[in-house]
Amino acid sequence: MPDIELASAVIPTFPRHPMVLAGQARTLANASQGRFTLGIGLSHAVMMADLGIPFEKPIRHLREYLSILMPLLQDGRVDYSGETLQASAGFFGSPPRVACPVLVAASGHRR
Q1: Which domain holds residue 72?
Q2: N or C: which terminus of the chain has fewer CB atoms within 10 Å of its end residue's CB?
Q3: Residue 1 located in a structural domain
Q4: In a domain, 110, yes or no
């Protein structure tokens, strides 16, 4: 079914490092021959608390997450050090074969 588009729904960013998610997304984008769209979001403070994951500085976290994720999806390289996330000399060995669009979910005001 080459016309069917695939998407991840919304994957919460706090429990998964952006380098891990980038690798998974690139694999799906390649396997689906460019029909995959990645959806990410912050999740909710209550959900992260239930998992024992601090939900601190969510907007800063999302900006830094995208600062790592997007370069890895676009050209396979990143070197980033932020306040909440780091990815030193991240490299996947080659640029992606196909594009992987990213949708960012939001459900409230910035804090």
Answers
A1: 6-104
A2: N
A3: no
A4: no
pLDDT tens profile 47-85: 888 888 888 899 999 999 999 999 999 988 999 999 999
Please name every residue paired with 103 in a beta bridge, in sequence order, or none if there are none.
39
pLDDT band at 45 (very low <50, low <70, confident <90, very high): confident
Is the distance from CB of 62 to CB of 104 less than 8 angstroms?
A: yes
How many domains does the structure of the chain reveal?
1
What's the token pair of residue 19? 């380098």
Whether residue 109 is contained in a domain is answered as no
- pTM (2 decimals)? 0.87
Burial pattern 68-86, b for ≥16 Cβ within 10 A else e, equals bbebbbeebebebeeeebe
Q: Please indicate, yes or no, if residue 62 is contained in any of the structural domains.
A: yes
